[in-house]
Amino acid sequence: MTKRGVLYTCPMDPDVIRDIPGKCPKCGMDLMPMGEAKKDRGHKMHHGKNAEQDFKQRFFITLPFVLTVMALSPNIQQWLGFRIVFSGEGLAVFLIGTFIYLYGGLPFFQAANGELSHKNPAMMTLVAFGITVAFGFSIATTFLFPGQSLYWEMSTLISVFLLGHWLEMRAVRGATGALAELVKLIPPSAHLMKNGTIVDVETEKLGIGDQVIVKPGEKIPIDGIVEDGESSVEESMITGESRPVAKKAGDAVVGGSLNQDGSLVLRVSKTGADTALAQIMKLIREAQNSKPKVQHAADRAASVLFYIAVAAGACSFVFWYFVSPQGAIFAATVAVAAVVVACPHALGLAIPTVTSITSTLGAKNGILIKDMKGLEIARKLDYVVFDKTGTLTRGAFGVTAIISNDESRVSNDDILKFAASVDALSEHSIGRGIVEEAKRRNIAVSSVKNFLSYPGKGATAAVDGKNVAVGNRRLLEELKIAINETGTPAEAQTSTPVYVAVDGAFAGVIFLADIVRNESKEAIRKLRAMGMKTAMLTGDTEDVADAVVRELGIDTVFARVLPEDKVNKIKELQSEGNIVAMVGDGVNDAPSLTQAHVGIAIGAGTDVAVESADIVLMKNNPLDVVKTVALSRKTNRKMMQNLAWATGYNVFAIPIAAGVLYPSLHVLLRPEWAALLMSASSVIVVMNALLLRRQKLG
Length: 698
Ligand code: ADP
Ligand code: MG
Prior knowledge:
The protein is an alpha+beta fold. It has 25 helices and 25 strands. The strands form five sheets. The protein has a seven-stranded mixed sheet with strand order 13-25-24-23-14-21-22, sandwiched between helices. Strand 17 (458-463) and strand 18 form a beta hairpin. The relative contact order is 0.10.
């Protein structure tokens, strides 16, 4: 929800809800505050899919009348070589024309009214203006001065507009709806275990702590922890990972994923807005609210085009009536055609249709775009900076060696016990590695007091009445504890040394090694092949960092970097004129994610990282960075194509409609052809955007 709590919606479609003002991704109209939009929409207004149905209905109902008007037109009769004359013919055409104008034109008048009441005349105002000019002129010829009317031109114009909007909304409906697809993932009911019996309840009614049964082949209704049973679960909708994941007691499962072969008993752990799926939907909503920069350019161009359209219409009329007189009918027809053809509809749709498909395509690949501006720049990246631990490596540390300081006489097991007791409270992956090793060796950890974390360095605490420090060289230096060099055993050459001190005296070193992710090497290779440089940022030692960098073929390395300095390294690269992306997972990466041109949080990392990022990768897979850049490039290409088409079309269409080719070639664009062309250009833009849906990334 916004700070001010105002929500915006489309005057045509209540399904479109945004928390900032902007254009409707479906019809390109300006969004307006919720309450006002409801008023504007009135009792008869178009609702979501119904708006589409409404256009369709009005099209088919008016069609026979339009055909009648056409049959009665002297012009058409002359072309087709027949003649119908009856008394009251003029009046009949007037009555039918009035019906077509009022019934067929109504949706456009309502929408135009919405635009005008927000002092933002646009597309719909032009349409309403065009048909009203044609209608007004025709009435005048019926009652005021004799002459040819524009009834059949007006009628076909309305017909084409109704058809165009119907087809276009149908296409756009296919292009949006990422959220609707996600909502469909949640099964409406769940099997609740209650007092030993199973009852089916609505999924919404589940509460935290409820016990739920999921049968084989069913969707998991809600986030929970497996209490009993074993199964494999396909989580691709949530993580983009297509391989099923094995689940047993103690594992977490998310609502919307598909349970495959086994039966599971779950304990509900999250409900409502806290569930993973609800969080993803929130991110997608945010993404749809965020506009790429080109959108602003497109919006500006569209509003300029509005005035160009009005000017083109007015100038055409003046020219063909006064300067090169061809009579009022000719001048009015040309003016209407010029206004109609210049409707900036395609321009309004050019960008939003692409971004909505982009966010859906991204989500399907496990890439959540929080800010379109970030994705927009990703195609131009010079440098991709990776955090090491947990990003390029698995963050699963194993102990490779323990060496004790001879002088301190603390045994290896005690070193491990002290370190594990402190690190049991740490969230750091090194800490987890130490605790795991203690468990493996059946060493019990003691409870601790005064735990203190030193981000990027280590931690201290009181264990069994002794002051214990666990961390890197920097931590011990800061605590003024001298380190006796113990040497590094062969098996720990590229391991991270973690120093342990007890009561101010250096006790020994635990060496831990991490495993580089299989996908990291390919990701680096591909990024370089795509023309980007890569860098690695770590708080770890040079030895460890160099080993990883050599293995992966990374260009630049920054080792022994304190969390607060990580952001400076990003700034450094930026000051050299590079466009920089940062990929990280940890709390200590958050400032760098914000600083970088594009912040990418990996593995849906820590909440802070997700909050600071522009793009969130659902899987722990560096290859998805490559996919993100590919998505950015494809998206940009589509946007440019659409913009080029939507503006380029006007460059040709407006002058032709205004009659530039008439004197020399006798080529004129009739209003209904102008309308057809205008609608076709919008449909082409939408279709072109839809092609993006088929694209494979990476
Ligand atoms: P990275 O940049 O690789 O994610 P950090 O900046 O989080 O790493 O940590 C840098 C170094 O600080 C680690 O390599 C480790 O030596 C030390 N360290 C940090 N936290 C702890 C901890 N809880 N226990 C032991 N050592 C730690
Ligand atoms: Mg990290």
